[in-house]
Amino acid sequence: MSRKFREAAGTARTGSVRLAAAIRRRMRDRGGQLRSDAGMSTAEYAVGTIAACGFAAVLYKVVTSGAVSSELQQLVERALHARF
After folding, report:
1. Residues 29 and 54 in one domain
2. Which InterPro entries does this one have (predicted)?
3. CA-based Rg of the chain, rounded to a whole angstrom?
4. With a threshold of 0.70, does the pTM exceed it?
5. Torsion of CA 22, 27, 32, 33, to 10 degrees
């Protein structure tokens, strides 16, 4: 092995050790214990997805209602007939 290769390998190894230590520090809670779960579980994803779909349905109903639809139509017509 050449000296440059050994130096580069040592630097990379040192960098990866530092990265691993930084990740471990981030994963500790305030008590110093490692957290067992750093993300959401499948059930939490399911509840989030259902909530997002419900919000989308309500938003769709609001946007396609008569009052909002006519206001949007008038807005587009005013924009198309605007003078520059």
Report:
1. no
2. DUF4244
3. 28
4. no
5. -130
Residues 51-73: pLDDT tens digits? 999 999 999 998 888 888 888 88
For residue 75, pLDDT beyond 80: yes
Distance CA 65, CA 73 (A): 12
- Note whether 47 and 24 are same-domain residues: no
Please list the residues that pair with 34 across neighbouring strands.
28
Distance CA 27, CA 36 (A): 9
Which domain range does residue 13 map to? 1-36
Cβ-contact 56, 64 below 8 angstroms: no
Asked if 35 contacts 28 with a C-beta cutoff of 8 angstroms, the reply is yes
Alpha-carbon distances of 38 from 2, 11, 22, rounded to whole Å: 41, 29, 15
